[in-house]
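Course assignment 3, question 2. Fill in each field.
Student: A.L.
Task: Predict the tertiary structure for the chain below.
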Amino acid sequence: MSTGPLEQFFRTLELSLGDRAARLTNKRRADALLKLLAAKRNGWVDHDAWTTVMREHLDARRGHPAEQRKHVDSRSAPSLR
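Answer field:
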């Protein structure tokens, strides 16, 4: 059993996060970022489809995204600090 693929995954993750890793103190934002990185790593990313989804979302709201602070940890939820 080889650990090579796992080590490669962690190297890729480290390169993707870079210096940001020490500043990922907001759990909800960190989870969202890790989900995006996992989607990219697993080949689930379709740039054209996401462009269409985001454009339709913004067009429906006159160019303004909804809920700007959606990824803020609630006071009752633990943070990563």
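Instructor remarks: Helices lie at 4-17, 27-41, 47-60. The chain has a mean pLDDT of 82.
Grade: pending
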